Amino acid sequence: MQISIANQFTIATKQENDGRWIAEILEIPDVLVYSLTEQEAIKKVKALALKVINNELAVSQLVELRKKIAQGEEQIRQGKVVDGEVVFQQLQEKLEQMEKS
């Protein structure tokens, strides 16, 4: 059985020979769960998918922030940013906050 989630993700379910249900998100590698019922498997795989997506977003935000810091450092070295130290400090603080959460 396949169920579409908001027309973006597809959950595929199948009952195993031992009676357990497996549910997976086809568009996200390695997002699959086993459970005793199909409904429980669907609920668990949705929760896992949200965690994976949230983690990917956090990682991409950190990468983007590190790029901005590198650009800011370069602008400071070139003397292009008068308040570069302030901008750099703000970006560093934001990065540290994101890494803690």
UniProtKB/TrEMBL annotation:
InterPro entries: TTHA1013/TTHA0281-like
Superkingdom as given in the UniProt entry: Bacteria
Record protein name field: Type II toxin-antitoxin system HicB family antitoxin
